[in-house]
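Action item from last week, closing it out:
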Amino acid sequence: MSKLNRKLIFHILGLLLMFNGFAMLISAFVSYLTNDGVLNEMTIVSLLVIFFGWLFMTVSKKNERKINKRDAYFVVVLGWLVMIFSGTLPYVVTDSISSFSNIFFETMSGYTTTGSTIINDIDALPKSIIFWRSMTHWLGGMGIIVLAIAILPLLGIGGMQLFTAEAPGLTGDKIHPRISDTAKRLWLIYVGLTFLETILLTFAGMSFFDAINNSMSNIASGGFSSKNESIGFWNDNPLIQYIVIFFMFLAGTNFILIYFGLTGKFKKIFQDTEFKWYVSFICAFVFISTLILFFQVNLSSTEVYHPEVLGKFESSFRHSLFQVVAIVTTTGFVTGDFISWTPFLTMLFFGIMFLGGSSGSTSGGVKVLRHLILIKNGFLEFKRSLHPNAIFPLRHNNHVVEKPIIIHVLAFFILYLILFIIGAGVLSALGLDFVSAIGGAASSLGNVGPALGTLGPISNFDSLPEIGKYWCAFLMLVGRLELFTVLIFFTPYFWKS
């Protein structure tokens, strides 16, 4: 077995704790500005986390500045767990959430950008805690580890292995030869989009506090809102909802393509096969949903809509577009109880929980690219059955997809389905009905947010038994790190390598 570089691992974990601590310090500043009564608690816990981060980095300062693949897996999984457990502290010291199982669930849902919640009255929380919930989304969205990669070269550490372990993708696209510079540019885009949405939402009628919170959640494809009704609180302001839709769509788009767009390379965007199918899937699902809402659902009788002003078609289109984009990108915002619209739409929305956004985005789920490779490979199998001696390469963006990648996608899909079945089975064994069990498993594993049945958009996950909350939290982490990064720890050869 290769020896772990423990000092380097501790050094990076300390760096991540420092990030978390300074994020808590910002939340403490929000407490000061809003006078919400928890300033002392938030300040003390932030300084405590910063101190331990500094201590970790100090005692491990003299380390071998080299990270291998096995070290990277330890850093990523331990890094997320350290961030999550330290991220529970603001809830603990302010006593804003009861029981540790609830706190752990909420924190895991935040960092993994799932958006499922156990909180019944968000408005009753201190403002700094509402901000901290959104901050956990924002830190987890682009990946805490990716942020660390941007800093690692300053410490003399290469980060390529760390990057691939935290965000195992299917494409080798980079916007800069050095992985750290790629991470920095991605984070600049991430920060820029967050502030741009905040400004637009503020001008559209949101308070600045609501705007910054919902923007951090949105760009992270999270789903925590500052209001109990989520974005449905602003159902009388279509402009706000269209702005949120636009940025949900961007968050579900490959950030490399967004970079190309910002640098004027629009041809690369429109030539990208995944992007074209991403848009096509959304358009098709919105078209179907709009027709069903328009002809079969009276929105004004079930939600706070104003069809007499907006027109029934516009209302049907807007809420169809919002909900489809929210579920495809696994953002988790809602504008109403979509599972009460029609049984067909409930089934449709359940199905697209397995779609996911683009690879290289902040979305969860299987991802569009994996679906495309599966579908293309399926059609090629028909050809191979008729012409067994012919060679039919699978192509994506006019490039041949190598066989190991195809095998990886097939393995991912099989593992995903097995985990979904096991996840639903465990929830059923804990007493959930069939619809709630499959919805809860699909939502947690895909980092979607609202589920079905008793875990639907107008309820939350508070009704889950304590073990069920820990189980869903585990599914969230596995889904966020795309299965292999976590599951590899359960294989004997990982520990023997």
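Closing note: The two ends are 5 Å apart (CA to CA).
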